[in-house]
Design brief:
By secondary structure, the chain is an all-alpha fold. The chain is built from eight helices and no strands.
Length: about 230
Amino acid sequence: MESLIRYAPLLAGGAVVTLSLALLSLALATLLGGLGAAGKLGGGPFLRTLALAYTTVVRGAPDLVWLFLVYFGGQRLVNDITGALGLGQVAVTPFLAGVFTIGMIYGAYLTETFRGAYLTIPRGQTEAAMALGLRGLPLQRKVVIPQLIRFALPGYGNVWQVLVKATAIVSVIGLQDLVGLASDAGKSTREPFVFFSAVLLAYLLITWVSQTLLGLLERRAAAGFADAR
């Protein structure tokens, strides 16, 4: 326990890295998920095929394999491009590789989450809004997006919970996150059980806070929808 207290500030810094990695990855995943869903729902044959290939290929391989491909292969690809342009070598950090990899993977899952939420919206509501003269952005902002958020929130929350835990894999390429620092501290003090127990509690805390906040958002969205009716 004394070792854990001594390393507490270091682990707190690792927790900040973990949360930063998770939030940035979620932002990228949300963007990719929105684009993928738009491609599947309203794109032409090319965009639909591209979105289908993205979700199929990305979800078909383990997260760790994608991480290694992005970190080692991506590093070489970036340096080949900068070398051809006469620029210097560029280092792809474990943090950036983690953000891109996790964002890319969970963007594929959010594509299906957003697509399913959109298809859940009663078609009659959009038709009624169009009959009243709503078109384009006003239709999306006043009718489609509020309902899309309501229907997508449960699936979005599930993806976030899994994504947070997936950040632990980035420690294998040297990221000094919560898991990586706990592993190093456990080896140096020969108390790995103590430090990984602390990591377990930290992830449980993040999960509990996330569930609480997401539950509040879901209830608020449902209440707003009921009021609108």
